[in-house]
Amino acid sequence: MTAPLTNDEVGKTVVDAAGKELGIVAKVDGSRAYVDPNPSLAEQALASLGWEGEDEEDYIVTEDMLESVGEEIVLRGEL
Fold first, then answer.
1. Which stretches of 1-79 are DSSP H helices?
2. Burial class (CB in 10 A: 0-12, 13-18, 19+), 30
3. Sign of the CA dihedral with 55 first, then 57, 63, and 67 last
4. Cβ-contact 42, 48 below 8 angstroms
5. Do residues 62 and 14 make contact, with C-beta atoms less than 8 angstroms apart?
6. 23-50, pLDDT tens digit by residue?
7. Which among 32, 37, 38, 63 has the fewest CB atoms less than 10 Å away?
8. Is residue 55 within 8 Å of residue 77, measured between CB atoms?
9. Is 16 helix (H, G, I), strand (E, B) or coil?
């Protein structure tokens, strides 16, 4: 099991097991991260400052879907 998600993950890139970029973390709420698949430059800048936000196109990633959390968030391959 990976470390729990925290607000420190806001702005990090989310990638699949093959390394394909899937988006950035827009918001963390408990054990769920809201991932923006098409962040604008403004959204990327706000996320890098740790300012959270979510919109209707975001998808949810839960802690049990994670392989690792570091400079980027890597999803498990067997999802």
1. 41-48
2. exposed
3. negative
4. no
5. no
6. 999 899 999 999 988 877 777 676 666 6
7. 38
8. no
9. coil
For the record, the structure tokens of 19 come out as: 């390394």
Asked if 12 contacts 43 with a C-beta cutoff of 8 angstroms, the reply is: no
What CATH topology corresponds to 7-75? SH3 type barrels. (2.30.30)
Domain borders along the chain are 7-75
d(CA 79, CA 40): 27
Which pTM does this prediction carry? 0.82
Beta pairing class for 13-15 and 73-75:
parallel
The tokens for 60 are 């949810």
Q: What is the Cα–Cα distance from 74 to 20, expressed in whole angstroms?
A: 9
At which residue do the structure tokens 């998808």 appear?
59
